[in-house]
Amino acid sequence: MSISTTLDSVQKNLFQFGGIILLILGSVSGILNLFVFNNNALRKNPCSICFVAVSITDLLYLYLGLLLTLLENAYGIDPGANSIVYCRCIYYVDLIVACLGPSYLIVASIDRMLVTSRNAGTRKRSTRRLAIVCLISLALFWTVFHIHALIYMEIFQIGPDTFLCSFQPGAYTAFITYYSLFLVGILPPLLMAIFGYRTVKNIRQVRHAVNRSQASAIETTTVGRAYTVQSKDRQLIRMLLMEIFIYIISRFPSTIFLIYQQITQYETKSTDRITIEQFVQTATYFMGFIDSSVSCYTNMLVSKSFRAGLKRLFQFHPQN
């Protein structure tokens, strides 16, 4: 059996079975997240609003990205290959959603950095209104930024009665490659790591100040009064840090592969090497859906308040 045949079989099984599993897990995860973060105890918290937005984009990303890729790789069904309008619109929306998820996580990271500050004036900037304005502004920005997909996506014939919806070759393909590498692979994890680190640093400073105050029996004041991070905020921070960790882990292989592609783009490659690279590209793309499928389950692991929210959700309250 040739390398091409073997890898085609592995790729088909990867999406046929693994894709369906991720799709089911992700659907349940997104729906449960929406219910928990929309309850009365959390819905007014700016970070919870960000988590609601992330959950919605995760569901859209799964059904616009993973489901369509699953149909194409596992069952040979590519709806975009038959209609140029559908081809352009589906890629346009998919590009928007792919950027919205990490963008909303960055907003949540900034909010947690603000709310853990020892400066009361800085903490006041963490508001529900500011979070909503940021989320809407980002949605509008990415909607306008990706208009190019409505112009430069085309349908190409790659074989007898075989058509593919893809980017125009040449400069536009190079632009999409560098754009994906920087705006999806490098910049979001970098910003998340920076703001996550600042949040952890803020928490340690607050904890150190409180411990020092207790040890000396003298109240330590920061802008007029002592400050401690509330339990609900600590729970949200744990969930956010786990979200960031999973995002970085699941997107890292794809980023490395894009860098590899750029380094080796002018090399002469054998047919087997091209086949292997295409398989690796598909596999790393598949891994990019993991972070959109498991957030509910990681939230259950790290947050007692999230587990309590799920418990309330499934409790039966008989009518008197």
Polypeptide structure, described:
By secondary structure, the chain is mainly α. The chain has a single domain (12-305), classed as Up-down Bundle (Rhopdopsin 7-helix transmembrane proteins), CATH 1.20.1070.10. The protein is 75% helix and 4% strand. The chain contains eleven helices and two strands; from the N terminus they run ααααααββααααα. A two-stranded antiparallel sheet has the order 1-2. Strand 1 (153-159) and strand 2 (162-167) form a beta hairpin. Helix 3 (84-115) packs antiparallel against helix 5 (128-145). It is elongated and about 70 Å long. It starts with a helix and ends in a 6-residue tail after the last helix.
What's the CATH H-level homologous superfamily? Rhodopsin 7-helix transmembrane proteins
**Beta-strand proportion:** under 5%
For the sheet with most strands, the description reads: 2 strands, antiparallel
Rg value: 23 Å
> Using DSSP, what is the number of strands?
2
Q: What labels describe this entry?
A:
320 residues; mainly alpha; Rhopdopsin 7-helix transmembrane proteins; 2 strands
Would you kindly provide a brief summary of this structure?
The chain is mainly α.
Write the layout of secondary structure elements.
Layout: H1 3-37, H2 46-75, H3 84-115, H4 120-123, H5 128-145, H6 149-152, E1 153-159, E2 162-167, H7 171-216, H8 231-264, H9 271-287, H10 295-302, H11 304-314
Antiparallel strand pairs: 1-2
